[in-house]
Amino acid sequence: MQDDPFNRPLRPLPLLIFSSRWLQLPLYLGLIAAQCVYVFLFLKELSHLILHAFEFTEQQIMLMVLGLIDVVMISNLLIMVIVGGYETFVSRLGLEGHRDQPEWLSHVNAGILKVKLAMAIIGISSIHLLRTFIEATALGTANARVTEQGVMWQAIIHGLFILSAIGIAYVDRMTQTRH
Q1: Which run of H or E residues covers position 25?
Q2: pLDDT in the model for residue 136
Q3: 68-81, pLDDT tens digit by residue?
Q4: Residue numbers of the domain that contains 40
């Protein structure tokens, strides 16, 4: 009978190091709690929109809907981090062949996860920037919620997010072709 290298017990130090990945479990549970908070926020904002729809202007409704989209996109980002991070760094979820397995999970690794997270952050930033541009119509009035400098910095930061995502994708592609 041959010794199976995959089922051989680890020595104490490698076992300790390998087992330390479970220290991330409370972090992922905390993100699940944060996800619950976002569900509550979404329901609160949605009920506010529905209850006051007849009182709001079109612009106010648009801003509230953008807020709802923003909450959903952040929630999607949380799901990617929770599921993808747990699967990549802690333990397999064992979802192979499950009908509800997310398509992207079957080929997730740290590089792909970084690119997906960067793209999600760009999407969230785009929603914030769009809200800022809509609110910028009030610039120069007493009701203005944004300043010209605020709009400029948001646009610059958004551009930096895009450049960072391009850089991350480029580095990931370079490392994939060399392996």
Answers
A1: helix 25-51
A2: 84
A3: 999 999 998 898 88
A4: 15-98
